[in-house]
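Known limitations

Structure tokens in this collection are predictions and should be treated as such. Users comparing against experimental data should check residue numbering before alignment. To illustrate the layout, the record for 3-beta hydroxysteroid dehydrogenase isomerase family is reproduced below. The input appears on top and the generated tokens appear beneath it.
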Amino acid sequence: MDIIQSLLAQSPVGRSAVAAFGIGLVLYLIFINNRMRGVPDDMKRLKQKPWTFEMLKEAYARLEKNPITVKTTKDRLPPKLSRRYVVVGGNGLVGGYIVLQLLARGQSPESIRIVDYQKMHRKDMLEGPAAEIDVIHTDISSVASTDAAFTKAWPSLVAKLPLTVFHTAAVMVPSDRSQSAYKFLERINIEGTKNVLAAARKAGADVFISTASGSISVRNVELWMAPWRLCGWPKNYVQPLNEADFSRPLRPFTEFYSAYAASKATAERIVCDANCERLRTGTIRPANGIYGHPTDNVVGSPLNLATCPAWSYNIVNSFIHGMNCSLAHLDFEAVLADPRSSTMPQAGRPFTVTDPNAPIQFQDMYFALEKLSVTPFRTVPLIPVHMLVTAYMIEFYMMLPHRFPILKDILPKVSGDAKYLQPALFSIMTHLYATNDPASKPVKEGGIGYHGVINTTDGMVQQIVEWNNEHIGRQENAWVKYKSSMTLADEFEDLQK
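Generated tokens:
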């Protein structure tokens, strides 16, 4: 500040230099903002055509009359196996669909066990066969709690059947890249995975499939472009979601976009490295956003908010419906159930999966929510570069108590959605596209034969149909409020303190 005042107090040359710097900075920010609003040519060619109201209206009428559900797609599931199942995180988005698909293909409720920290909250699991399943409240960060869930006696009719474990439980902190966040995530996502894996071994499981994350492959997006590179696009602004990184050594922490991605990558290596003849293992990496239930962060969260601040209208992403993600787990299990599969190319590795269609833009999803939801929904346009600068300020503020512990009891904590606005968010909210090619190959060619049962257009419209059926005729004070996975992570973190 003293330097600037000194320049202004001197000759007109000094004042001109300050003015030129200010103008240059403003122009630079305008350019970065325009880049953040843009869509590179390769993504323009790859993405779907914009959704139209006529297209959405047709899909809504068709799905309202003939909904796509677990029951209507049961013929596309792998055949029933004579096995018993532990679904860790079975009350969640992916785990819940795994349970429902297992039941739909003929598994008996007594052959399935849900191990979860959450209470049963999915309405589609509160009645019928799903309501008969044994649910064991478990903290997987505790060895004793995890072992108790796995050693509980099974009904005699299924006690001697081979055991498959689907590990879908994790806590999600999507935009924090700090070591302090990693320490919290390590307890659940890494140590919890170790505990579940160890308990599965003791229980005699011979198949273990874990839900990883497509975000593992995401690199930091370098939005602050050097002046001599302004004719191009930010580095990593467009990224594929695939398994290429798995063939190389695990990256250092700083090369992951967030602490969450680093924790999931570490957990994935633990699972895949455990593959052997007695316990065949592998992981499924869902594409960037999983949707398909009111608790999800993609469609459910905006519907719950009603008013959604947004700056990512232009961003092109691959998404995956929860039913597709759970189907991929069952497809993988069908391969690993073969006792000879430990040496097959599918074992001990990840498969990335997405909906069976090209990626879409966020503006398509927002348009569908606005036009089809019976509850009010609107977006509030924000300036991307302004949000980016604000994100750095929030991150700096949140890190102060970690750098200077004396401030912990002095500085007010950042709460609500504001704490998610950190620089890492702009790396996961970038142009990300996935392919099903490796997973969709036939088993004989090294794949798992995955083919999704619902595309993104129908999946998102179907979710809106279900939301409307639950809310039509309700007053605003009677709307059903759902907790997202990020909210649950916050609550769990508070309990751990």
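For this record: The longest strand covers residues 280-286. The chain has one domain: 41-381+413-486. Please report discrepancies through the issue tracker.
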